UniProtKB/TrEMBL annotation:
Gene name of the encoded protein: metG
Entry similarity comment: Belongs to the class-I aminoacyl-tRNA synthetase family. MetG type 2A subfamily.
Subcellular location(s) per record: Cytoplasm
Cofactor: Zn(2+)
EC number, UniProt record: 6.1.1.10
Organism: Candidatus Caldatribacterium saccharofermentans
Keywords: Aminoacyl-tRNA synthetase, ATP-binding, Cytoplasm, Ligase, Metal-binding, Nucleotide-binding, Protein biosynthesis, Zinc
Positions of short motif 'KMSKS' region: 296-300
Name the UniProt record assigns to this protein: Methionine--tRNA ligase
Domain of life: Bacteria
Length: 509
């Protein structure tokens, strides 16, 4: 399949260490990037950090550091986590990058020239930690941030405004014409209702905040951190400097975000793009939040899940699998060690790992590690199941339904285990007259393992690579379109397998 695919995570605010929420979004983006590469598409996958704003300046001052020193330290934590999680991003963008500053200022000037940015005065309640203004109606008489619960500050100052109110009707028309622009459907309905209520002009600059990108021609103002941050998606694709890169990837842009920042991405951002005369992203997908044993994560409760600790204890692929399998993408999820261990043991140890380990052990025990493709290899039941699984797997992946896509893969796992138990190769091996049938059974099981290795690579790249190495077919991952090779009859003429170690020993817990 030809084409391009541009997938982004939010750029994460560097006010804290990365947690399970950051890992969840980034893992999902990585799964999509790997999947589309395996379809033969050109892929651009970006993540990064949002490093400007009053909150960072205050945190740096409290720590006795310059803002740049603070962000340079925190950024390393994100980069280290992505390395340990095998995140395959092509670009790691920082809002302190000079190229991004130039892009933001040129975009600001473009909207100003088009008449969508004007200077005025703003007065309102402002949440410093969330970098967000709130209206009196939104606060309902309570002077605390509706998102984080912290006290608000009253600000009145000169400001540049973006004429967001002009895009109520254009954005509604776009949503009517593109019902899959915001997903899942519940989030689309939320955004549609919000826009229908009417949009108000947005303050997009700050006075007295030195840690940010200066407004071009008016350096007393710095550009509002969200206006700055959203433009990173254009910086990555070379907006204003690399036409070929922009035209290759921007039409296929997909944004993954948490539901708490959906309005910025599904209201403010598309309005900014409409004002600039640019195409909108193909999709904005908002996933849910993770709780811990039913409670909201917080540092005060001491229940924040550190992905590095989970990986160190249980392994990276168990963690990646749990994140993508445990909950339907888009809904809220709950993390507990008990659920993690139960899911890992049931799916990875008892089902998938057991199928692979039993198969490879029998190949070594009965065929010295080598099985040639037998005559009459075809099997209608296998073929029909695989065709159905392939079609549904691709459909679910195109809708970012990762748990359901993995469920399809596990249909093959369960079928393989039943097939192995029904055929009982250990009994066939005792009868010399069943030697050819034994070869057929073992070869089919090995080819099932080959197909599983390819399907699972986007989710568990370390395990899938190891499996394909055991089978002696790891070169399939170097093919331009490995997913096209997931079919019966496309296995090697001879499987020459390595003596295996268990892929997923059972966890205690």
């Amino acid at each position: 399949m030809d084409g391009s695919f541009y997938i982004t995570t939010p750029i994460y605010y560097v006010n804290d260490v990365p947690h399970i929420g950051h890992a969840y979004t980034t893992c999902a983006a990585d799964v999509l990037a790997r999947f589309h590469r395996m379809r033969g598409e050109r892929v651009l996958f970006s993540t990064g950090t949002d490093e400007h704003g009053q909150k960072i300046a205050r945190a740096a001052q409290d720590a006795g550091l310059t803002p740049q020193e603070l962000v340079d330290r925190v950024v390393l934590r994100f980069q280290d986590l992505w390395k340990r999680m095998h995140i395959s991003h092509d670009v790691f963008i920082r809002t302190t990058d000079p190229e991004h500053e130039r892009t933001v200022q040129s975009f600001f000037l473009l909207l100003k020239e088009k008449g969508y940015i004007y200077k005025g005065e703003y007065e309102g309640w402002y949440c410093v930690p969330c970098e967000t203004f709130w209206t009196e109606a939104q606060l309902e008489g309570r002077l605390v941030c509706p998102d984080c619960g912290r006290p608000l500050e009253r600000l009145r100052e000169e400001s540049y405004f973006f004429a967001l109110s002009k895009f109520t009707e254009p954005l509604l028309r776009y949503l009517d014409e593109h019902p899959d622009f915001v997903m899942p459907e519940s989030r689309f309905n939320e955004i549609y209702s919000f826009v229908k209520g009417g949009l108000k002009d947005q303050s997009i600059s700050r006075l007295g905040v030195r840690w940010g990108i200066p407004v071009p021609g008016d350096p007393n103002h710095t550009i509002y951190v969200w206006f700055d941050a959203l433009i990173n998606y254009l910086t990555v694709v070379g907006f204003g400097r690399d036409r070929e890169l922009f035209e290759t990837f921007w039409p296929s842009a997909h944004h993954l975000v948490g539901k708490d920042i959906l309005r910025f991405h599904a209201v403010l951002w598309p309005s900014m793009l409409l004002a600039a005369g640019l195409p909108l992203p193909r999709r904005v997908f908002a996933h849910g939040w993770w709780t811990v044993e039913g409670e909201k994560m917080s540092k005060s409760k001491g229940n924040v899940v550190d992905p590095l600790e989970v990986i160190a204890r249980f392994g990276v692929d168990r963690f990646r699998y749990f994140l993508m399998r445990e909950v339907s993408f888009g809904l809220d999820g709950d993390f507990s060690e008990r659920a993690f261990v139960e899911r890992s043991n049931a799916d990875l140890s008892d089902n998938f790992g057991n199928l692979i380990h039993r198969t490879l052990n029998m190949v070594w025990k009965y065929r010295n590690g080598r099985v040639a493709r037998p005559s009459q290899y075809e099997d209608r039941e296998w073929e029909e199941l695989l065709q159905e699984v392939r079609e549904r797997f691709f459909t679910f992946m195109d809708r970012f339904a990762f748990s359901q896509a993995l469920g399809e893969i596990w249909r093959l796992v369960h079928f393989g285990n039943r097939y192995l138990d029904q055929k009982a190769p250990w009994r066939m091996a005792k009868d010399p007259d069943l030697g050819e049938e034994l070869d057929r059974v073992l070869y089919r099981l090995l080819d099932c393992g080959r197909i599983l290795g390819v399907f699972l690579f986007p989710f568990m790249p370390e395990t899938a690579t190891r499996l394909l190495q055991y089978l002696g077919v790891e070169e399939i991952l170097r093919d331009r379109n490995p997913l096209a090779l997931c079919d019966w009859g496309k296995g090697p003429s001879v499987f020459s397998v390595a003596q295996p170690e268990p892929l997923f020993p059972r966890l205690q817990g």
